[in-house]
Every structure is written in C-alpha cells, then in structure tokens.
What does this fold into?
Amino acid sequence: MKKLILILIDGMGDHVSHKLGYLKALELAQKGVKFTLESELPSLSRPLYETILTGKLPIESGITNNRIDRMSKEESIFSLGKKSGIKTAAVAYHWIHELYNGPFNPEQDIEVENSEKNINYGRFYWEDSYPDSHLFSLTNKIVKDKKPEFILLHTMNVDDAGHKYGGLSKEYEDVVYKLNYYLSHYLPIWQEAGYEVVITSDHGMDINGNHGGDSKLEREVPFWILGDISKNYENVKITQRDIKKICCEILKIN
It folds into this structure.
C-alpha cells in the first residue's frame, strides 16, 4: 500500500503558483506535473474541502457555504482509508475536524489520537494566522512518530494574507514565496520516507480579497502531482472533483 501526503494551500490562486520556484524545478526535472484547475462553485473553503476530499459538488454534498458546520454525509478519503484499515492524519484548520470527525471543541480536539475516528491523528487550529511553519513541523512529527498512510496538511496563511491585502498584493505574494522554503525542506524528507505528494488549493482570491464567485482570480487553482507517479497523469484531463479519485488510486484503496 502506498503512502500519500495531500498539501492543501488555502486561498492560493493559480496566478501566483509560479512563485513556487521549487515546484517548478521539479516540473522541469520531470519529477512532477502541474495542472490548472477550475474550482467548483461557490468558490468557498468549506464547500471545496468537501469537493476535494469527497469528489462531490457543493450542491450535491449540501455543504454550500462556510457556515454549515455539520459533519459530512459523503465518503471521504478519510472514511475510505478507515474502512481500508490504513492510518489517517490531518494537520488542518478546525473545519476539517467538523467535516470528518464531528463537532470541534478547542479544549479537547486540538490534538486527536483515536483509531475509531475518520481522522486517526489530528492537530487542529482555529486562527487563520497560525504560522504555516508550525504546520509543516507538526506534520513532520506525525509522519515520523505515527507513520500514517494518508495525511492532509492544510495551511491558511496565504488565504489570510489575501483577505487582508488582496489577491494581487505584495503581502499575498510574499506568503506564497515563504512556502518555497517549507516545501523544499520537507518534501525531500517525506519522499525519502516513501510518501507520494499531491499539492493543490481550494480557491483563489480576487483583487479585493474576496472569493466565492465565478471570476478567473477566484476560481483558477494549481494542482501538482509529484514523483514518479506523475508520469501516469501527464496527459489526463483533471477536474477538482477528480482529486479524491487520484488520491485513492495512489493509496490503492477503493
């Protein structure tokens, strides 16, 4: 059985994806492929977490806005992983806990270790400004200590900067540039440990720091598949709904 890390960079539009020079270097070395996807609608975070992790459109899942805080009713990568007997993990915003593990209590659920949950090992945060650097370090510790077959790393600093300064601002770009260091440092470690890596975003960000609509800035997002498996997808047409299927193919779970 394969191992996979899915990195979800919240709020990063495709228009700034070229700032990630390390990923471009992997593409040029034929160690990865990149796609530009169009997010589903509405281009909002919680509905699109559900699309990415379950393959369902927001109007199908019923998660159509950010204020719907019930648990998902769909089969996700986490629930399928649990049924297949693999260990799952997430270092993610608390909305991920609400969708796939249930109601979130910050006093109790900041750390989760429970084999009965869809997400067996979780480290959850609730401040959008919680440092991406800490999230990569926490992910690395879970990888070393728990060795899950599937782990979601979900960062929020790009989205936070976009809302504060706009999707075409220097501040927004600066946070994307910072990700270069974390990716170039940790990806080789995780790949050496046997993990495949997939990277994407849920939605983009317009000039005024908004998303939810149908503009190019709000909807176009990048999607990378790294490593040798990327050659299997070079000439494949991919939509945001296909990410769940691709992750399950990599993990070899039904």
Observations:
- The two ends are 12 Å apart (CA to CA).
- Residues 170-192 form the longest helix (23 residues).
